[in-house]
Amino acid sequence: MQLKIDQLPNFLLRKENFKPVFFLSGEEPLQMMEAADMIRSTAQGLGFTEREILQVDNSFSWNELFQSSNALSLFSEKKILDLRMANAKPGAAGGKALREYVNRPPDDKVLLIQMDKLDFRSKNTAWVKALDKAGVMIQVWKLSPPQTLGWVANRLRKKNMQPSQDAVRFLTERIEGNLLAAAQEINKLHLLHGEGEISVAQVQASVSDSSRFSTFDLSDAVMIGDTKRVQHVLHVLQQENAAIPLVLWTLSNLSRQLYEACYQLEKGASEAAIIHKIPYPQQKNFRIALQRLKAHADWQLILQQNADIDRLSKGLSEGGNKGMGRVWAGMLELSLLLSGIQLIPRV
């Protein structure tokens, strides 16, 4: 059966509604993440206390799904099989395996499938129809501007805040469709003002000046190697006086994660095992960055750039605009290095 994303919370309230298979596909990371969390939480309440993640990639064998579904738990507990697919193309072997699984789903397992959005051709395949018949299928779409406006208003009201129309409109325009950033700003508003009326002035005062482009946007642009967007996001962050320590931490943390991932690959670790450790909404972009950097990155230069910017920001934190301008220039160089641009060494 098919559900809309906003029908899921009420659907899960009734124990008899719970199905052996839940199938999420879509392109909006926050809604995908929250829907999966709701399903896992409900499953845990019904006794599915163990969880196994199965990452479908080039090295994945569909026999792993059958081994996991037939395996007895060490502690005789019921288990969630969290199957994550990078795309909607399981191939002939995958389509057959999924059809066979849903024909006889084990009583002590619940299968949660997460993947990118289905294209028109995939929707008509036998394996999608089998999943739809056996369980719950939810397609998650990016929101249109009017839908985003309604989503922001509802999110605020769920926290017992009563925003004015201007407040909702202002916040919606600032987050530019980024629901992860919107959720973060709404949580901040709740911490600052609690429940009750929320005016546009309060939103303007509390929403981060960098909310038009957050550090999430910078990290995503770097990972996919979009150098034009990297430069644009950093320029906006600088013009709006974003907190330098936060921007620098974002770049340094991303540098560390990618360096460690590349090092582990050299030591023989599988890419799937490495990607598992990355939060689900970031996995696709992290994989793109890893593929780009694993063979050609100058890690000595990248790590040295991190250290240089850190020292520069601390030593010139009270040195005025000229000093801070040098920090921003250094962060741009670091961002471009991580994006795959080899800069000309400075003399």
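That was protein one. Protein two is written in the same sequence-then-structure order:
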Amino acid sequence: MEIKVLGTGCAKCTKLEELVKEVVQELDVDAKVIKVTDIKDIVKAGVMMTPGLMINGQVKVTGKLPTKSELTSIITTAMVK
């Protein structure tokens, strides 16, 4: 599984990256977590508001910081597919 955290480095973007790593570790998911900070790459991915979250090439969150439980649900759902 490939998880990308898209953001230029704001507090919410940094927090999302921390939460993603925490949830991945707790769920024992085999996932590669990538931080994307280049604005061109973020826009190319279709994210106009940060933070953004992509899992396996699909945008799952944009413009908000999900709660830990929301993030756990998003990642768990993506694991099943």
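Residues 2-64 form a domain with the Glutaredoxin fold (CATH 3.40.30.10). Keep this in mind for the problem set.
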